[in-house]
Fold each of these.
Amino acid sequence: QDRLHVSWQRAWYPSDYEQFYRSVDLGTGTMSAILNLNTMLGVPLTARSNAQALHVAADGRVWMTGPTASNWQETLLVSNQPYAAGSTFSVVGSIAPSGQGQNARIAFDAFGVLHTIYYAGNQIRHRSHDPVTGTWSAVSVVAPHGGGSMARAFDLRADVLGGVHAIAMVNTTPTGGATNPALRYTRRDAISGWSPGIDVGSWTQAQI
């Protein structure tokens, strides 16, 4: 439909977090009204959140992460109509099965399964969601030791063959009392799970 979908956040630590969504018809320049996700979900501005991931599925439905009333716990949303016509969304469920689920990224694989990676418990974790059956997978660890300032440094993509790819900043010396980060790539397939990973760049604490 040649339509741009945008999700963004206005935030001021420690207690003022607000998320918005709108779409733009690139042919006419017409913009939808701005949707306040906090208002839609009944989430107070004092609830801390990094949610703003967004993906348009092959059927045109818009999937997006949104805030919850609990700090650093995000929820998955899906538009009720293709291309988010009417700007109405339904809650699918929490990104993490329990506790922290922060900075989530989302992507669909070639089989229509949604994958998400998120920060929790000093790790980057993965879950997948099947929109057809409504089921979620178990949690797996994409990268350990990704805490501190690295908790936001990761991303996720999927390819046409069904592979899921992630890159994350990890600490290569988590028990050494120093932060020596590496940018680690890893790939997941349905049979073998996540690969051990390849460090495509590394630095010392002094360099950062």
Amino acid sequence: GEWSVSYAFNSQLAPVMATEPSLHSLRSRATVTWSFQEEAQTYQVWIDDPAPGVTPSSSIVSVNSKSISVDMAMVGRYRVWVRAIFAGGAVGAWSAPAVLIADGAPGGLNVNSADVTRPELRWQSVPGATRYDVRVTLKETNAVVMTAVKNSTSTPVTSHKLVDALPIGNYQFSVRAIAFDGTAGSWSSSQNYNSTLAPVLKTVQPGLE
């Protein structure tokens, strides 16, 4: 039969990047660099962000330099591949992925103690979080006495009311965000809390005591 339409390619090695995961702050910009490919005219870069499916920030872009900045807009793991484009449209092999981890802890953690032994925790949402881990520890020993998981897939969830009553004691509350890809962010700053029983009022009729 007839030969197919030809496809130009180049047998040179793929660009080399650091593949050890690197940690970056949420909402920062991380720079990814790679080795120069001789005779390369441009580079194509594929960025896979933590969100499911193809999003505006997960696509192929062309650059003329050997570096690119990645916007750490949501908590989770980013992967970046690069390949060289040569004269005549010849395409090199994709590199191994560079892995970037965007880390962000929930801020503004506070406690509503209207129900003293079952307080409500509130925090600020973290972009890209699909759930939050809640942790209660004893302040004196740091032993974990209670945990909870709050799903936050469709509507952001930024609070949790304890189901079980806390015995009298001193505690610390903390929260962390979990990304869609399962990457766990850092724990928030701890919030101290003292659980005490409410005073019991005794009704006394005048003149009886």
